[in-house]
């Protein structure tokens, strides 16, 4: 902001702490300064960078002129000056924050002893120099604060790299030529230039022209940077996709190398209204506020301290046209450093225009009003050579107008979960947003993980998300009038013009077939659009149910307008099959339980239909929903389940009942959802199949043990609380009903009853019951397979085809909570290898053709030797995700 940039920095610096000898070392040999002889406090306009090493505080590096000699490294935390970034939120220039600093290496800083003037005036002084002149006709710096003495800080020197030397020489050469230096190439953290002025002895005649030229170059460079920087909220004119990167590349940002080929064309910001942030001090654009009459608000990522790459997803980045990782270790390291810089938000790619999206939502069934991207930022849309367009988003990049009371940050544990699950879902074949990178840092925020009043500091982390669009059902709810239950309304209530504008953009961009088929009839087009959204959503949730995925927070603001799985929070995959499983520990009523997900998605579509009115009459939307959703869900779900069971040739009416009895058997025996389906591919077929006892033993081994069941059905309520609830239900049923605890009390009574039965059961008796349940269903399943292969000439070919289809639809690996937890704990200790290993494992979740069929547990072991394809360990049942 205010022309600020990373990489090159300009400073006003008071020098009472630096000895005359050290000040002279900054000048060329032979040049003199009045500071040395007279002892007068001088000032110097210099440039440098703020950098920080691992485990060390930030440092200010000042280069010697034209790359001669070693640079001077000063620790600003030891200076008696006051330090703040150019563009700081407060003009009071707060003291240097030391090791907790969140600004990245290369941030522009202003260092001064005196209380600085307001920011625009300060920038004006930086550009034109001090106004007061001395008798010699040269500008004189402002006088330091009287009565204050400085002390010399500890100093050390660092060897200058070739890049630093070359850049210093390039900048000095440009200054001698009277033009700004080219700072677009070379190392991002070693761009230096310096202009010195002093009082006392006159500098030598030979040095004066050089210093004047250098000063002119600096002033020209600042003026050009200020001219290039658009005012806050200013919307730049549209540039074609091929030219946008070049147009924005002139800005003073670090120049990307590996990412230089990304071409941005930010169509959403051209097609939809963008809020101009209100006037005010720096930081006002991200202050929480209602955002009426706009779909986006311009923001800026808040830099992180010492960003470090956790992992990259090469398949996701390939969508953007980025090539495979290089074989050379040094090149890979440079690539990862560049990814950490740009994918953390510490620097912006040429053409990126950060913005936060405004949307509303029904959360847990209640309209919550304005929500919006509280921690995510739209970066822009990348056009690829293949003609595709992908929206890039940073999640966890800092505060936005929609952050409310939060800080806009995400932490390492939640970011790793989203990063891994986004990619896992894609490789499972489920429509989803993608995750290209995960970048952590040394910046920390406090989080109360279990909401028990015991917060802890966790590392700020950012995830690069990729999708065709991140618009959602809640995007259309910003026009909602006051809700009859909550009284809240959308920030753009009554703006039907924006609703129509957004609908036109969504249909033309993401439903081009619908647009083309109904170009002349807007009403028919809108109806066809809602019909297709309904179908996509039904197919998506059917895919969830077939792999045992629980979303956890199926609010309308977490439902993609293009039918993608979006916003991975307290998600989970089923371990022991339980249709009432709730993966989100804060979902006390079980609204988003596994078995209720289809019903909830249909309810959310109803709210979308209401939000589209009057563009789509509500009665018409409700009719489409009633006609399409249940039919599409049932058809897709049953088709997928047939493939999971290897029913490849015929479709019979009784197949739905066969699937229902399978799930009932899994529930009664506590069978592992993923492993049970995977094992069924090895079921022996025939009138008297060989190996059936061995198969039955392997199948019952995937059932819950007595210890697991006792843990799963342990009471959740205090016995005294349950007794009070039962007394209240008998004495005052009306009050009991108003309290809304009937369902939870009923579930608790079922747990108590089940726990009592388990106490009377031995492990042998449990195994016998499980074998009986599975024997009954396997007989039915075997008979159905016999019908499927009737009339088949080549039995071996039928068996091979059946096995192939089952392997392609029953994954061996899913992202179970305990697998993610192992990766998180290793990463929190600084070891990212487990994250990368799990990511690689999840890229091939299915058995591949040509591979030998392996027993469960044969591969994919964690560091403790436990296989990721085995039943989860007992401690996994106690993991709590909120």
Percentage beta strand: 5-15%
Helix content: 25-40%
Q: Radius of gyration from the CA trace?
A: 32 Å
Distance between the termini: 36 Å
Number of strands: 22
Largest sheet geometry: 7 strands, antiparallel
Put simply, the count of helices is 26
Overall 3D form: globular
Oligomer: single chain
Which stretches are low in confidence, meaning pLDDT under 50 for 5 or more residues running? 1-207, 221-251
Average predicted local confidence, pLDDT: 78
What is the SS-derived class? alpha+beta
Description:
- The chain is an alpha+beta fold and 882 residues long.
- The chain is built from 26 helices and 22 strands.
- The strands form six sheets. Strands 9, 12, 16, 17, 18, 19 and 20 form a seven-stranded antiparallel β-sheet that branches. Strands 1, 2, 3, 4, 7 and 8 form a six-stranded antiparallel β-sheet that branches. A three-stranded mixed β-sheet has the order 10-11-13, with no helix packed on it.
- Helix 10 runs parallel beside helix 26, helix 14 (597-612) packs antiparallel against helix 15 and helix 18 (692-700) crosses helix 23 (763-788).
- The protein is globular.
- 43% of the residues are buried.
Key terms for this structure?
882 residues; alpha+beta; 7-stranded antiparallel beta sheet; 6-stranded antiparallel beta sheet; 22 strands; 38% helix; 12% strand; globular; disordered N terminus
Summarize the structure.
This protein is an alpha+beta fold and 882 residues long. The protein is 38% helix and 12% strand. The longest helix is centred in the last third of the chain and has 27 residues, at 618-644.
């Amino acid at each position: 902001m205010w022309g600020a940039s990373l990489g090159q920095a300009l400073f006003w610096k008071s020098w009472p702490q630096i000895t005359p000898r050290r000040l002279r070392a900054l000048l060329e040999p032979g040049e003199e300064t009045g500071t040395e002889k007279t002892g007068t406090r001088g000032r110097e306009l210099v440039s440098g960078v703020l950098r920080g090493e691992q485990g060390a505080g930030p440092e200010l590096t000042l280069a010697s002129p034209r790359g001669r000699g070693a640079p001077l490294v000063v620790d600003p935390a030891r200076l008696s000056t006051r330090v703040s970034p150019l563009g700081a939120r407060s003009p009071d220039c707060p003291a240097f924050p030391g090791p907790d600093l969140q600004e990245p290496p290369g941030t522009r800083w202003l260092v001064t002893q005196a209380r600085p003037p307001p920011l625009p005036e300060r920038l004006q002084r930086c550009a034109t120099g001090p106004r007061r002149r001395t008798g010699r006709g040269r500008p004189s710096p402002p006088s330091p604060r009287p009565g204050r003495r400085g002390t010399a800080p500890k100093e050390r020197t660092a060897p200058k790299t070739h890049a630093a030397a070359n850049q210093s020489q390039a900048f000095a050469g440009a200054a001698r030529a009277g033009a700004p230096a080219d700072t677009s190439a070379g190392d991002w953290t070693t761009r230096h230039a310096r202009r010195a002025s002093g009082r006392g002895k006159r500098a030598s005649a030979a040095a004066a022209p050089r210093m004047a030229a250098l000063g002119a170059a600096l002033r020209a460079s600042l003026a050009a940077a200020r001219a290039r920087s658009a005012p806050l909220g200013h919307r730049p004119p549209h540039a074609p996709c091929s030219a946008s990167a070049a147009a924005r590349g002139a800005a003073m940002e670090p120049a990307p190398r590996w990412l230089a080929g990304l071409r941005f064309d930010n169509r959403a910001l051209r097609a939809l209204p963008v809020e101009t942030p209100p006037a005010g001090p720096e930081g006002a654009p991200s202050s929480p506020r209602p955002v009426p009459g706009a779909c986006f608000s311009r923001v800026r990522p808040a830099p992180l301290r010492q960003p470090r790459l956790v992992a990259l997803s090469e398949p996701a980045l390939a969508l953007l046209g980025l090539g495979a990782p290089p074989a050379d270790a040094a090149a890979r390291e440079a690539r990862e450093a560049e990814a950490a810089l740009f994918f953390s938000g510490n620097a912006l790619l040429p053409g990126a225009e950060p913005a936060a999206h405004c949307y509303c939502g029904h959360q847990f069934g209640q309209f919550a009003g304005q929500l919006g991207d509280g921690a995510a930022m739209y970066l822009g849309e990348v056009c690829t050579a293949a003609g595709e367009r992908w929206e890039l988003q940073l999640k966890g990049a800092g505060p936005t107008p929609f952050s409310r009371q939060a800080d806009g940050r995400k932490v390492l544990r939640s970011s790793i979960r989203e990063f891994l699950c986004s990619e896992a879902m894609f490789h499972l074949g489920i429509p989803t947003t993608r995750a290209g990178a995960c970048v952590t840092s040394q910046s920390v925020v406090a989080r109360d993980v279990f909401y028990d009043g015991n917060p802890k500091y966790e590392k700020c982390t950012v995830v690069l998300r990729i999708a065709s669009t991140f618009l959602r059902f809640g995007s259309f709810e910003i026009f909602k009038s006051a809700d009859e239950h909550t009284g809240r309304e959308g920030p753009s209530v009554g703006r039907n013009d924006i609703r129509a504008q957004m609908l036109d953009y969504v249909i033309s961009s993401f439903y081009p077939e619908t647009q083309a088929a109904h170009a002349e009839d807007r009403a028919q087009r809108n109806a066809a659009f809602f019909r297709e959204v309904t179908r996509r959503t039904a197919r998506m949730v059917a895919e969830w149910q077939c792999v045992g995925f629980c979303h956890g927070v199926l609010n309308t603001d977490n439902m993609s307008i293009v039918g993608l799985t979006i916003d991975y929070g307290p998600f989970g995959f089923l371990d022991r099959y339980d249709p009432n499983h709730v993966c989100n520990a804060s979902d006390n009523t079980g609204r988003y339980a596994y078995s209720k997900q289809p019903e909830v998605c249909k309810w959310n579509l109803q709210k979308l239909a209401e939000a589209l009115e009057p563009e789509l009459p509500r009665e018409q939307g409700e009719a489409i929903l009633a006609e399409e959703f249940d039919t599409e869900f049932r058809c897709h779900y049953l088709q997928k389940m047939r493939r999971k069971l290897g029913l490849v040739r015929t479709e019979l009416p009784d197949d739905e009942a066969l699937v229902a009895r399978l799930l009932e058997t899994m529930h009664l025996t506590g069978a592992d959802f993923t492993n049970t389906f995977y094992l069924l591919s090895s079921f022996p077929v025939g009138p008297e199949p060989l190996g059936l006892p061995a198969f039955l033993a392997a199948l019952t081994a995937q059932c819950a043990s007595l210890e697991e069941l006792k843990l799963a059905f342990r009471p959740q309520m205090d016995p005294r609380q349950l007794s009070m609830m039962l007394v209240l239900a008998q004495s005052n049923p009306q009050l009991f009903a108003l309290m809304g605890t009937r369902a939870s009390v009923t579930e608790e009574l079922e747990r108590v009853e089940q726990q009592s039965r388990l106490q009377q059961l031995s492990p042998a008796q449990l195994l016998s019951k499980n074998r009986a349940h599975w024997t009954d269903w396997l007989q039915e399943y075997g008979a159905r397979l016999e019908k499927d292969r009737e009339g088949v000439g080549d039995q071996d070919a039928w068996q091979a085809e059946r096995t192939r289809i089952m392997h392609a639809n029953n994954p061996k690996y899913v992202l179970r909570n305990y697998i993610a937890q192992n990766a998180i704990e290793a990463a929190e200790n600084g070891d990212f290898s487990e994250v990368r290993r799990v990511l690689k494992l999840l890229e091939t979740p299915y058995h591949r053709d040509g591979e030998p069929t392996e027993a469960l547990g044969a591969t994919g072991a964690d560091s403790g030797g436990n296989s990721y394809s085995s039943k989860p360990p007992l401690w996994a049942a106690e993991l709590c995700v909120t």
